[in-house]
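Tokens in:
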């Protein structure tokens, strides 16, 4: 029973400030924590009351709470204020419950889930559970399912730490996007677990890591002076902290100097030299090794993190590096000195086993931190976004999964266990690192090399996934069964002819299948707008792709629209003039295709089809995918070849009003 409980029996005021963000935890260490929240309207006397079970409450107020508004924040809605309460003098590794008050008026619910756990003393051995997620900030169902899967998986053994490897607020990292795509979906976790975050490229569109300004830096309170362990960095975009026997290093791979002589690298060397931690874990956004939706052999941020930063980390004895950006899960073997471009497995693999304790066995490392005794690299950029395809296979990888999910780390004494769980809570990969005694590795001369067969393609919208193949088969069958019909004599347009659509062309492709769903922000993802029809070469196109011939064969268009009350969803149909093929999606569901064949590995074969006028296809079989209200039609358009003389894609959507 909490002795402090009777003190909190105060009434809510109708005029009390309303909490609009949080509360959430930041800047934890063994003796303190920062609690952050926002309100609509001013607070007369902001107070945080906190207590241990069975003890009287203490208060944090006055100068211990920093109030910030539009003048000191880069972006905040009008009329809102942000409060940052710094709690000090706490006991190490203790749990406290807390509540936000305005004077005597309680603003947070009387709920035990509002609690914080201080860090253990640096170097103190303690079982530690860490959630790692990246590229989550879509605001869509897959993000919520990944979070729910983590909560279920950790219900009996809750988290201690939360690491985010960037891109938590698509597409520009704006303040409203942080609110709807990070704080609101994760509130139940953020109110009790501090999130330590890396700056992603999408946050970088509105935040500056060199200057430490923007919505990202408004949201986070990161250490700059070694407040949570480690050497002071003087920059909130890269920092370190300790939790028991583990030392965590967050780096900025986006917009600071990544060279070996840069300030970040020089700080990293000092930080590694100073730590006495048993476990060293680095995390940042751009992966040093990937062939998912990004390619670490050709993209400069990824190359520089591999060539300049990985040597410093491995010389400092790093055990694990975590990243995102590439919308996939990839996990390496135990590697060392894999710095070359392009990356190969030659001369860099110390253990090519699966690392599973009941499989090939755990990866072995010395008990003491020792340079160049092996690193495992994980790309976990699939917490909300997911690639439709991979760009190849990174040869050093031991596990590759194209599905939504996240990674959970368990550190216990001389053992680190890592597991990837998908959005349904299923374990898809597991490995272990064991650190004890003296261990000597020989580089494996002919290591196992990842191939396409290594990939597990199971995610929604992933090319080659069983569900995608089946959807493609049904769409093709529907197209073959749907004999083009004359346009109904009486109809009403839901998407009028020549209406404006968003489109992606010029040899660009969507990274994920989110473009087929309602809520995808096409403008922020760089899509253009234009009237249908789309094409070139036959003088009847309204949006002309002058650069398409001999350069690319695929175009993507989407249109969000309203279906009003009273519409008969079974009477909807599409009129389309096309050359040569198309695949039509309704609210994320593949519905109908013509002249398109998709192979098991996701490749397309297109048959020639001349655009000789509008063909009408009933969508009655797919009525269940429409809803009254907001919908989206998304269409992939295909040309038969690069040398084709023309291309056309000209759709509109109608409701057939003809009597049965």
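Residues out:
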């Amino acid at each position: 029973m909490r002795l402090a409980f009777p003190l909190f029996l105060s009434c809510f005021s109708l005029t009390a400030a309303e909490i609009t963000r949080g509360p959430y935890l930041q800047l934890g260490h063994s003796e303190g924590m920062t609690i952050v929240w926002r309100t609509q309207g001013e607070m007369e006397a902001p107070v945080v009351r906190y207590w241990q079970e069975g003890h009287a409450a203490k208060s944090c107020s006055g100068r211990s709470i920093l109030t910030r508004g539009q003048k000191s924040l880069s972006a905040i809605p009008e009329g809102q204020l942000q409060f940052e309460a710094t709690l000090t003098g706490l006991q190490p590794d203790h749990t406290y419950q807390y509540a936000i008050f305005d004077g005597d008026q309680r603003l947070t619910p009387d709920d035990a889930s509002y609690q914080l756990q201080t860090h253990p003393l640096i170097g103190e051995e303690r079982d530690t559970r860490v959630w790692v997620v990246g590229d989550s900030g879509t605001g869509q169902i897959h993000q919520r399912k990944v979070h729910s899967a983590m909560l279920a998986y950790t219900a009996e053994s809750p988290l201690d730490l939360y690491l985010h490897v960037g891109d938590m607020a698509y597409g520009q990292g704006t303040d409203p996007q942080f609110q709807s795509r990070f704080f609101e979906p994760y509130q139940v976790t953020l109110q009790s677990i501090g999130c330590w975050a890396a700056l992603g490229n999408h946050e970088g569109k509105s935040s500056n890591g060199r200057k430490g300004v923007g919505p990202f830096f408004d949201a986070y309170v990161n250490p700059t002076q070694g407040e949570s362990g480690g050497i002071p960095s003087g920059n909130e975009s890269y920092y370190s902290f300790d939790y028991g026997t583990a030392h965590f290093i967050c780096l900025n791979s986006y917009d600071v100097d990544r060279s070996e002589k840069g300030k970040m690298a020089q700080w990293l060397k000092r930080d590694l030299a100073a730590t006495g931690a048993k476990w060293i874990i680095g995390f940042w956004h751009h992966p040093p090794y990937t062939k998912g939706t990004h390619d670490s052999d050709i993209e400069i941020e990824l190359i520089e993190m591999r060539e300049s930063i990985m040597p410093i980390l491995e010389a400092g004895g790093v055990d694990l590096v975590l990243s995102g950006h590439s919308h996939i899960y990839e996990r390496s073997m135990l590697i060392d000195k894999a710095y070359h471009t392009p990356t190969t497995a030659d001369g860099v693999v110390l253990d090519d086993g699966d690392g599973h304790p009941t499989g090939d066995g755990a990866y072995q490392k010395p008990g003491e931190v020792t340079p160049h005794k092996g690193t495992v690299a994980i790309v976990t950029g699939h917490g909300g976004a997911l690639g439709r395809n991979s760009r190849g296979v990174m040869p050093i990888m031991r596990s590759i999964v194209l599905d939504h999910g996240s990674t959970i780390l368990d550190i216990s004494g001389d053992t680190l266990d890592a597991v990837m769980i998908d959005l349904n809570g299923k374990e898809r990969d597991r490995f272990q690192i064991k650190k004890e005694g003296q261990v000597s590795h020989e580089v494996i001369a002919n290591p196992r090399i990842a191939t396409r067969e290594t990939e597990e393609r199971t995610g929604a919208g992933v090319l080659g996934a069983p569900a995608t193949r089946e959807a493609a088969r049904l769409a093709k069958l529907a197209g073959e069964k749907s004999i083009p019909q004359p346009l109904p004599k009486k109809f009403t347009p839901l998407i009028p002819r020549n209406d404006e659509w968003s489109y992606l062309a010029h040899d660009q492709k969507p990274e994920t299948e989110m473009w087929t769903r309602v809520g995808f922000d096409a403008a922020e993802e760089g899509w253009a707008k234009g009237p249908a029809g789309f094409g070139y070469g036959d003088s009847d196109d309204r949006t002309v792709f002058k650069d398409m011939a001999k350069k690319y064969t695929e175009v993507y268009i989407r249109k969000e629209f309203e279906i009003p009350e009273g519409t008969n969803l079974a009477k909807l149909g599409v009129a389309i003039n096309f050359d040569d093929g198309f695949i039509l999606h309704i609210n994320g569901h593949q519905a109908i295709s013509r002249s398109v064949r998709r192979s098991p590995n996701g490749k397309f074969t297109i048959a020639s089809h001349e655009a000789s006028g509008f063909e009408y296809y009933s969508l009655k079989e797919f009525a269940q995918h429409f809803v009254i209200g907001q919908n989206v039609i998304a269409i992939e358009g295909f040309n038969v070849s690069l040398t084709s003389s023309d291309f056309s894609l000209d759709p509109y959507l109608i409701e057939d009003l003809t009597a049965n």
